[in-house]
Amino acid sequence: MKEKILEVSGLTFAYDKSRNALEDINVTIYQNEKIAVLGANGAGKSTFFLNLNGVREPMQGEIRYRGEVIGKKDKVKLRRHVGIIFQDPDSQIIASTVKAEVAFGPMNMKLDRDEVEKRTMAAIKEMNLESYTMRPPHYLSGGEKKRVSIADILAMDCEVMIFDEPTASLDPVNAQMLEDVLNRMEEEGRTILLSTHDVDFAYRFAERVLVFFDGKLIGDDTPQKIFQNEELLKLANLKKPVFLELYELLREKGKVKETSAYPRQLAELDLLL
Amino acid sequence: MKKTHSHVSIDYYAYISGLGNWNTVYKVIFSLGALITVIAANSVFISAATIIFMLYLNVVIGKIHGMDYLRLLWVPAAFILLGGIAIMIQFGSGAGSLFSIRFFWTRLYITTDNLRLSLNTALKAFAAISAFYMVTLSTPMGEIISVFRKVRVPGLILELMHLIYRYIFILSDTNRAQKEAAKSRNGYCDLKTSFRTFSGEIANLFVMSMKKADMYYDAMEARGYEGDCDFWEEKKALTGGQLVYGFLYGALLILIFFIERRS
């Protein structure tokens, strides 16, 4: 049985009094899960992530990390375990070189210089950024900046990695690179949460999908069940993934074997043909 | 063949310069030393030697393309030359002048003393800028800030310097995108429209900068920022090879000093 990492109960948060950005969110996140968080713009996905990392504080409810309630004083501790990669790397990158940027998190963790350097260089290597180590961030392309923003969090060695719309504004090559990185992280035992508007990617990648609508969690299930729920898709402004539609069409025409667990990858579909 | 970089900003050279591996404190001391020497010596030959030596360091050792280096010198050079001309030319009767021409009711003229003063001032200013470029064209901003930290500049100012440096590029990128979007809709088709578009851009940029600042702060907090920005600083060893250039420069200045005294 997988271990519980984050337990969110009764989480309510508002930026102003007019409306709640998050309302009574209850969800448990287990170790090594791959979770896609879906919902229209303004549904509360990013606010949810900021609460998980402690940047925003719940107005009501609580968040537990490995069973411990996260209070005001534990936020820094929480950030050592839960890292966020922001949607726009330019909102995240602050230092004047790639190396200084990646070292920023470990430096804030007050690690010794050797450990900071070791982690920084390992993260830079993992993101294939060795040739950019001393380059100023403003001389990097969008894809390279994205890799730097991921290296930022890798260097902090976080157990939970949160990606806020990671594939937004990435070209296909960089999007594929990112997907490989995410799969590698999962193999390393990390827990991954990501928000995306790309339902095809979410269906292919995630093993669990959370759906937000107007600050509320309205769906929490497997990708197959979520994307088969037409009513939920309509309410959350989502579309059915093309791959799922294709499989259902092939099944309807009797071209593939029936299976209870729907295929999510081409290789899986191929086995059923 | 080395490529020129006409499209990049000045800090790019710090990243590509062969002097980038030099010890930062040494470079700052070298540069400041040259600057003070040039000002104090008040000698055309010492100024000229400094200009040539700094050109050698930046172009030959630093491997910055010669045309790039000259292009970078051109902006201050234009001001220096204009200033030099202003010092060189006198108004009056033109007695004892090397050269004079009538100018309305008076004469414009140049004397040997003014020519010498103008040349000396221009070369001194040029040499000072060359000495300053030795640091700026070979040292990333983060390292320059680390030198400020070593001389006990308050942490808050250093943090602001780091963030402002990064922010300048983000805002200039945002403004470039705004400008292109405005141009694509004829936002700069005439003077009146240009003023209106420009004021709109600035207002929008201000709002965006406030929003971005909030996002920036969140991103910093998410990585454990608690009020003190601790940035990684590279430790670059001071080697004998680097010191050789300092000695060479010093020896050159001493040689010029003695030659000048004997003549």
UniProtKB/TrEMBL annotation, chain A:
The keyword Cell membrane belongs to this UniProt entry's keyword annotation: yes
Location of the protein in the cell: Cell membrane
Single Gene Ontology MF annotation: ATP binding
InterPro entries for the chain: AAA+_ATPase, ABC_transporter-like_ATP-bd, ABC_transporter-like_CS, ABC_transpr_CbiO/EcfA_su, ECF_ABC_transporter_ATP-bd, P-loop_NTPase
Segments forming domain ABC transporter: 6-239
Keywords: ATP-binding, Cell membrane, Membrane, Nucleotide-binding, Translocase, Transport
KW Transcription (keyword) present: no
GO cellular component, one term: ATP-binding cassette (ABC) transporter complex
Membrane topology: Peripheral membrane protein
Family membership noted in the UniProt record: Belongs to the ABC transporter superfamily.
Protein name: Cobalt/nickel transport system ATP-binding protein
UniProtKB/TrEMBL annotation, chain B:
Record's subcellular location: Cell membrane
Sequence intervals crossing the membrane: 28-61, 73-101, 121-139, 151-170, 242-259
Keyword Transmembrane: yes
Pfam families: CbiQ
UniProt GO BP: cobalt ion transport
UniProt topology in membrane: Multi-pass membrane protein
Keyword terms: Cell membrane, Membrane, Transmembrane, Transmembrane helix
Keyword Cell membrane found: yes
Chief location bin: membrane
InterPro entries: ABC/ECF_trnsptr_transmembrane, Cobalt_transport_CbiQ, ECF_CbiQ
Entry GO terms, CC: ATP-binding cassette (ABC) transporter complex
Protein name as it appears in the record: Cobalt/nickel transport system permease protein
Organism name: Anaerocolumna xylanovorans DSM 12503
